[in-house]
Amino acid sequence: MSKAKSPINEALENIFLKNILLKSIRAENHHFDVELNPDIKYKVLLKHKVIQSSLLESTDHSQHLLRVSLSYGVKWVAEEDASKELAIIEADYMAEYKLKKVISDEAVDAFCLKNTGHNVWPYWRELVSTTTQRLGLPNLTLPLQKPVKES
């Protein structure tokens, strides 16, 4: 008797990265200058979420594509009042994957929630690093992120 594949393993065997696209970006510095105001107290808030996924099929049913929309953000706010936004960087990405064959909805969901963020994270991490420098913000290097694997 063979053991059924877990949804994430089904996905990993059949999904291959095609492209990662930056769909939109917003970056603003609202007079946040640590050089002129070195005593400013602030905190950094992060956002990362999968927005949606879409399975597409060619008209002849020979090719399948998975598109996943993700949204990221980093916001600097005043420590004493988190509603006081000092600076913000937000970006939306689309990760595109080719499918070797059609897979279950459970496999698609597991892959989108556990692995697409790992694929897009280096692009987001680089964008934050270079954009903070260009906006004159305090240096922010996001940590590395490792893929989630089933135990």
Brief descriptors of the model:
single chain, about 150 residues, alpha+beta, Bacterial Protein-export protein SecB, 4-stranded antiparallel sheet, 3 helices, 4 strands, elongated
How would you describe what is shown here?
By secondary structure, this protein is an alpha+beta fold. The chain has a single domain, classed as Bacterial Protein-export protein SecB (Roll). The chain contains 3 helices and 4 strands, in the order αββββαα. The chain has a 4-stranded antiparallel beta sheet with strand order 1-4-3-2. The two termini are 21 Å apart. The mean pLDDT is 90.
Concise structural overview:
With 151 residues, the chain is an alpha+beta fold. The chain has helices at 7-14, 105-114, 116-134, and strands at residues 15-29, 42-57, 64-78, 85-99.
Strand content: 35-45%
Element pattern in H and E = HEEEEHH
What is the top-level CATH class? Alpha Beta
Mean pLDDT score, rounded? Answer: 90
CATH architecture term: Roll
What is CATH's topology name?
Bacterial Protein-export protein SecB
**Looking across the biggest beta sheet, what order are the strands in?**
1-4-3-2
**Total number of helical segments?**
3
Provide the number of structural domains.
1
Separation, N- and C-terminal Cα atoms: 21 Å
Instruction: Let me know the number of strands.
Output: 4
Shape: elongated
- Which ranges are low-confidence, i.e. pLDDT below 50, for 5 or more consecutive residues? none
Pfam families: SecB (PF02556)
Keywords: Protein transport, Translocation, Transport
Protein name: Preprotein translocase subunit SecB
Family: Belongs to the SecB family.
